[in-house]
Write a structure and sequence with these properties.
422 residues; alpha+beta; Rossmann fold; 2 domains; 6-stranded mixed beta sheet; 5-stranded antiparallel beta sheet; 32% helix; binds adenosine-5'-triphosphate; binds magnesium ion
Length: 422
């Protein structure tokens, strides 16, 4: 177990391009950190710098407070789990798991090796498959063998680079929850690279969002979702994405393509002096006005619109409406789309409606929007104007406390069952 400290890490490849640019993160002992961001933002590079497969151009990397910049990968005692598992097809599951111990020639007795492999297999529910070959296993089982290899080494930390991207959707979900439970049980520090939103949001104690090698925000999933620091994080986290529409402040109200929105004064104050702001509204802030409590209605704004189409998903439905942005707003949307790695950010608003809603496309419909929740962004810098750092920090603190409690519980449970066994 170990803490990992990244101090102002920079990676420049041969052509001088900074793939990782001044990234600092303090990873706590036992913490599960996720690195996310669009393709090419430097996630794998950062992970490879930690494990020692890539030189560090500038900055310091500390493991348990000790500088390891110049240490070879094998001396860092970190275990990497790759996307393609790198299992040996001619070896049994047992020998695949035992491999790292065999590699350290003579260091581990046969008895010790057997003990560790059996324990790892039990944790991963692989005991009955130990004599089989990787080719005869399912994707999920292979994944577990790869994890078993990391476990027997008793590494100080696990590093994962998109370990589930080869699996189908169902297995991914299954493996996701297995990895999560196992990480808690072992309490081992983990850094996990993905560009899958769901993995990021469900696995991470904290999620680090990267854009073009630069760390945008690191926070608990809830803080990222509720208190994003800028328009990039706001647009990247959440599916369907947050809607961005231009707004102008006039006479204490916000004028938008949805009409006049009355938003809380303390938020409006933040837009002071700006001619135009970007208004961020998550799809679920909208509802069919007919389905909103009369008592709640005055807390938001009701407006009439036409949806271009709707999609019914059973538990909810999506509605879409187009809007015609001013040219400067269109430019802004385009550059945001480029950052988010999307082809084009359509001037379109997506709303999530209750599955019972009878609103259909092509007819006038009354929608309600919860204006208390809207975000405002500076259109020039992209920074949030309405972020509440204290509320955000409290959300992350909560998540950290939850993790400590869970690891504590898992450890005392393991102790209790260990005492029973002996
Ligand atoms: N060996 C290399 N030489 C030169 N440039 C590289 C090398 N490896 C990566 N890069 C560049 O560094 C940047 C970051 O790459 P990296 O592989 O870390 O991205 P990533 O976030 O893992 O992307 P993906 O989600 O596609 O895996 C990219 O712009 C890439 O072109
Ligand atoms: Mg990568």
């Amino acid at each position: 177990m170990a803490s990992i400290t990244l101090q102002n890490l920079v990676k420049k490849y041969g052509d001088g391009f900074p793939a990782v640019n001044d990234v600092s993160i303090d990873i706590d002992d036992g913490e599960f950190i996720i690195l996310v961001g669009p393709s090419g933002c430097g996630k794998s590079t950062l992970l490879r710098m930690i494990v020692g497969l890539e030189d560090i151009t500038e900055g310091e990397l500390l493991i348990d407070g000790e500088r390891v910049n110049d240490k070879a990968p094998r001396d860092r005692n970190l275990a990497m789990v790759f996307q393609n598992y790198a299992l040996y097809p001619h070896l049994t599951v047992y020998e695949n798991i035992a491999f790292p111990l065999r590699l350290a020639k003579g260091k581990h007795s046969e008895e010790e090796t057997n003990k560790r492999v059996q324990a790892a297999a039990a944790t991963l529910e692989l005991t009955e498959h130990l004599e089989r070959k990787p080719a005869n296993l399912s994707g999920g089982q292979r994944q577990r063998v790869a994890m078993g290899r990391a476990i027997v080494r008793q590494a100080d930390a696990f590093l994962f680079d998109e370990p589930l991207s080869n699996l189908d959707a169902k297995l991914r979900g299954q493996m996701r929850s297995e990895i999560s439970q196992m990480q808690r049980r072992l309490g081992v520090t983990s850094v996990y690279v993905t560009h899958d939103q769901t993995e990021a949001m469900t696995l991470g104690d904290r999620v680090a969002v990267l854009k073009k090698g630069i760390l945008q925000q690191i926070a608990s999933p809830r803080e990222l979702y509720e208190e994003p620091t800028n328009i990039f994080v706001a647009g990247f986290i959440g599916s369907p994405s947050m809607n961005f529409i231009p707004g102008q402040v006039e006479n204490g109200k916000l004028q938008t393509v949805l009409g006049e929105l009355e938003i809380p004064q303390h938020k409006l104050d933040k837009a002071e002096g700006k001619k135009i702001v970007m208004v961020g509204i998550r799809p679920e802030f909208f509802e069919d006005a007919k389905l909103v409590d009369e008592a709640k209605k005055p807390l938001g704004a009701t407006f009439t619109t036409r949806l271009t189409h709707t999609e019914w998903l059973g538990n909810e439905q999506y509605g879409y409406m187009d809007f015609d942005p001013a040219p400067e707003v269109r430019d802004l949307l385009n550059s945001l789309a480029k950052d988010l790695d999307a082809d084009e950010l359509k001037p379109q608003i997506v709303v999530t409606l209750d599955s019972a809603s009878r609103i259909r496309a092509g007819r006038d419909a009354e929608l309600w929007v919860d204006t208390r929740k809207v975000h405002l962004f500076d259109p020039e810098t992209g920074n949030s104007l309405t972020r509440d750092p204290e509320a955000g920090a409290a959300l992350t603190q909560e998540a950290i406390q939850d993790r400590q409690d869970e690891i504590e519980a898992a450890r005392s449970e393991a102790n209790a069952s260990g005492q029973q066994a002996s």
